[in-house]
Every structure is written in structure tokens, then in C-alpha cells.
Task: inverse folding
């Protein structure tokens, strides 16, 4: 490996490659911050553009978009409660309450540092341990994916702020909605009512935009500003320091993101929710989560950016993309005539290690840009709602329509928005609903495939070592959450 470092660094110092990293990161931040425009879309659109470039320049450009896009999702999530990407949905739980308290600049600073360290730690893992970690990821089969989805669903208990019954009902509603569309095992259509647009299930991004964005618009109509009085000047926001005690949360989130990211099909959204759950259950001040705790922002952001390096581990070593963005990146590799596998680390070692090192530079670029521009972003919250509401509405409509160029998605987004508003007012959790909607298909597919493997015996979920480990972690996470709710109920009775 060391023999490729100097040639890789030499190629990386090419001004054209450095410009590609910078421009890719900036484009990624902008795309990530726009609801509905994802890093996958941006990378896929860039593939034809990179055809005429040298391989390292093209891959560095796409790597910059990937890193910047994963970070950019936090900006709109924190300031407007409108996640730019699905992976930033968990960031809104504490990021937006911080904005409403006038701490939007601090929340963005926390998100920037957490994203940076998440990206750096996962890239170090990619650089040093890629082959070993790739072999470990192959030990995950359908039973492990099912139990992993259950672990993610256990976050419903964490996300529930009031009535546990309403929280579980919200999660169950999300799981029911996730069954709409084609059965992944038998191919039968379910609850589609002959609507062709529902054959592939409920499109996730319009539902997410509706639940978080449209319901937020309806809330904002009752106020004149998100923040009544933002007294802090840009200079004072720049001087605001990172809250203390976030190191362990960011480290755990980065490791969770790296591990979950290298599991094909799992993705950054699941890792963010699992990391958030871990952070809340292990915190002494768990009651403050959901009300503006910086640890909530740090946990989700470090995990979703940790997925960047993690998802590239099976891609570069085995040719198995960890998520949709990595799949688009695989297209970029193939168009250059590069086949993922051992040859990338031997015959094309200088180019491959140059690409990995370019991810470090992309992380530094979005760190500098994020810290410098955070105060200016924070000023968005002082914009009158009379101007902000039409802006969010336009972004929501464009974001919903742009994914499939389909007006049905726009109507679906509006429907979910209105439903989400009344669910929130009724004390139900839209976060738990989203979790059920995301994890339902993964759990169902893993469950069905596992039963086929075991000839119908459910014992397959309790016989494999990794399944047992995941069950144990899930139970450990749920004990404090349930005990906390029972204590609150007992105190109310007393």
C-alpha cells in the first residue's frame, strides 16, 4: 500500500484534480441542502461528464459531491425542519428546536464538525482496513438484516416524547404504509387500488418532504418569524464555540455509520436513526433529546457522513455498492474501464489511493466552508415567515416533482403534509412513522428471505451469532427507554 502513496499524492496535487474536488464538494453541499435533490441524482448526472476526464479527476469530482451532499442535507434540516436528504431526517429532531431557540448557528457548527469527523474516521477505515471490513460485511445475510431493521425500529421507543401507545401506533402506521406496492417475495400487488404510481410502493422522498416540510409550513403560519429576536450578529455567531462533551457521541456515531454504511442496502438513513438512539439511551440528559440537545445533531450527522467511507469499502474491494450513491459511483468506475476488486488496489493502486485521499480533502473543504458560512445560513431564520413560507413551499413542490417528474408525487407530498400536521397536533410521532416507512421494506424482505432459507422455521433469527449479538444490543437499548416511560407513568399516578 505504501508504495502507492507518493504517486497518489503526486496525482492528487494536480490543480485540475484539486479544482474537481472543490467544485464537486460545493455542488454537493448545494444539492444536499435542496429538498428532493439527492447526492445520488447529482453523482448519476455527473457520470457522462466524467467520461472525458482522467479517472482520478472524475472520481474525485464524484467523491466531492458525495461528501458535500451528505453534509449539505443538515443545513435545511436544521434551519427549516426540511431534511435536504433522507439521511438528515434525524438531524431535524434536535437541530430545528435549537434553531427556534436562536441557536441555529451553533447547531450548524455541531453538524459541520460531526460530519467532518464522521467522514474522516470512515475514510481512515476505508484506507487501512477495507479488505478485512469487506469480508465482515459479507457475513450479514437476510436474518441479520431483519434483526438490524428491528434494532432500527426500536428507535420508535426513543423518538416517542409523550404517550408510548401513540408512538407505537405511529410506527405501526408507517409499517402498514410500507406494505403498499408489490410484495417483494411473491410479486402480488397490495393496497395499490390500481394506481400505477403506487406499484413500486410509496415514494419515500415526497412522503418525507410532506411530513417534515408541509406540516412545518402550516405551523409557521401562526408565527411571524422562526426566531422572534435573533440578536446575535454574524461575528458573535462565528465566535460561538462547539459545546463540550460531544467527542464520545461523534466517535460512536462515526463508527456506527462506517459499520452500517458498508452493509449493502442499509444506508445512511438507518445509521443516523440507530446512532441517535444510541446517543439518547446512553445520555444522562436523555429527557432533553428532541428539545434541542446538540448531542442529537452530532449523533445523526456523524453517522450519516460515516456512511460515505463505509459504503465505499464493499464497492472498491468486492464490487458491491453499500447504497444508491455508491452504486452511481460504481457506474463512474465502470465507465472508466475500472473493475472493482483486487486490481484497483494493485494495478490501479495510485489512482485508487488518490481517490481515497481526495475524500479527506473534500471533508476539509466542507468543514472550512461550513464553519465560515454557518453564521450567514443562520440568518435565514430571521427572515419573515411571509417570505419564508412561499420559499419552502416552492422548494417542496420542486423537490417532490423533480425525483420522478411526476405530479402524483406532489399530491402525495401535500397529502402526507396535511396528515402529518394533524398527527403532530394529536400527539402522534411523525418521526416514528417515517422510521416505519423506511425500515418496513428492509424488515419484510429480510424476514421473507430468512424463512425461505430456513424452510419456514423462525429459529433462524436466534441461531446465528451475529443475530444474537444484534438482539442483545436491541434489548439493551430498549430497557432504559421503557423503564423511563414506566417511571413517568408511575409518577403521574402518584
Result:
Amino acid at each position: 500500500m505504501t508504495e502507492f502513496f507518493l504517486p497518489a499524492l503526486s496525482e492528487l496535487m494536480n490543480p485540475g484534480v484539486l479544482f474537481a474536488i472543490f467544485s464537486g464538494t460545493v455542488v454537493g453541499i448545494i444539492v444536499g441542502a435542496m429538498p428532493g435533490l439527492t447526492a445520488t441524482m447529482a453523482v448519476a448526472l455527473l457520470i457522462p461528464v466524467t467520461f472525458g476526464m482522467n479517472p482520478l479527476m472524475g472520481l474525485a469530482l464524484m467523491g466531492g459531491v458525495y461528501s458535500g451532499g451528505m453534509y449539505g442535507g443538515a443545513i435545511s434540516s436544521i434551519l427549516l425542519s426540511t431534511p435536504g436528504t433522507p439521511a438528515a431526517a434525524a438531524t431535524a429532531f434536535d437541530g430545528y428546536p435549537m434553531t427556534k431557540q436562536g441557536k441555529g448557528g451553533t447547531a450548524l457548527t455541531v453538524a459541520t464538525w460531526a460530519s467532518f469527523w464522521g467522514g474522516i474516521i470512515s475514510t481512515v477505515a476505508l484506507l487501512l482496513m477495507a479488505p478485512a471490513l469487506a469480508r465482515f460485511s459479507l457475513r450479514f445475510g437476510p436474518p441479520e438484516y431483519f434483526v438490524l431493521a428491528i434494532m432500527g425500529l426500536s428507535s420508535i421507543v426513543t423518538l416517542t416524547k409523550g404517550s408510548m401507545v401513540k408512538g407505537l401506533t405511529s410506527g405501526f402506521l408507517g409499517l402498514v404504509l410500507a406494505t403498499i406496492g408489490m410484495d417483494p417475495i411473491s410479486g402480488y400487488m397490495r393496497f395499490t387500488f390500481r394506481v400505477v404510481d403506487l406499484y413500486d410502493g410509496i415514494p419515500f422522498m415526497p412522503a418525507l418532504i410532506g411530513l417534515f416540510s408541509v406540516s412545518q409550513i402550516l405551523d409557521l403560519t401562526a408565527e411571524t418569524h422562526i426566531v422572534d429576536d435573533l440578536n446575535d450578529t454574524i461575528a458573535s455567531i462565528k465566535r460561538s464555540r462547539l459545546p463540550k462533551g460531544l467527542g464520545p457521541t461523534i466517535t460512536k456515531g462515526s463508527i456506527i455509520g462506517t459499520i452500517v454504511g458498508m452493509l449493502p442496502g442499509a444506508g445512511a438513513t438507518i445509521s443516523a436513526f440507530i446512532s441517535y438512539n444510541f446517543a439518547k439511551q446512553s445520555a444522562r440528559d436523555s429527557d432533553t433529546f428532541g428539545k434541542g440537545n446538540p448531542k442529537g445533531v452530532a449523533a445523526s450527522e456523524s453517522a450519516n457522513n460515516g456512511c460515505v467511507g463505509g459504503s465505499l469499502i464493499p464497492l472498491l474491494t468486492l464490487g458491491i455498492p453499500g447504497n444508491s450513491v455508491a452504486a452511481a459511483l460504481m457506474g463512474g468506475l465502470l465507465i472508466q474501464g475500472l473493475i472493482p476488486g483486487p486490481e484497483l488496489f494493485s494495478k490501479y493502486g495510485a489512482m485508487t489511493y488518490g481517490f481515497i485521499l481526495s475524500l479527506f480533502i473534500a471533508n476539509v473543504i466542507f468543514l472550512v466552508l461550513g464553519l465560515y458560512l454557518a453564521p450567514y445560513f443562520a440568518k435565514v431564520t430571521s427572515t419573515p415567515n411571509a417570505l419564508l413560507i412561499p420559499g419552502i413551499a416552492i422548494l417542496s413542490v420542486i423537490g417532490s416533482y423533480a425525483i420522478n417528474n411526476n405530479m402524483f408525487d406532489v399530491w402525495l407530498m401535500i397529502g402526507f403534509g396535511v396528515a402529518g400536521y394533524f398527527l403532530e397536533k394529536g400527539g402522534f410521532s411523525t418521526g416514528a412513522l417515517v422510521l416505519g416507512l423506511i425500515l418496513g421494506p428492509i424488515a419484510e424482505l429480510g424476514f421473507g428471505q430468512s424463512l425461505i432459507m430456513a424452510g419456514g422455521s423462525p429459529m433462524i433469527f436466534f441461531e446465528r451469532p451475529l443475530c444474537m449479538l444484534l438482539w442483545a444490543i436491541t434489548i439493551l437499548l430498549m430497557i432504559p427507554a421503557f423503564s423511563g416511560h414506566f417511571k413517568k407513568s408511575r409518577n403521574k399516578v402518584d
Remarks:
- The chain has 22 helices and two strands.
- The chain has one domain: 1-225+242-483.
- The radius of gyration is 22 Å.
- The longest helix spans residues 104-137.
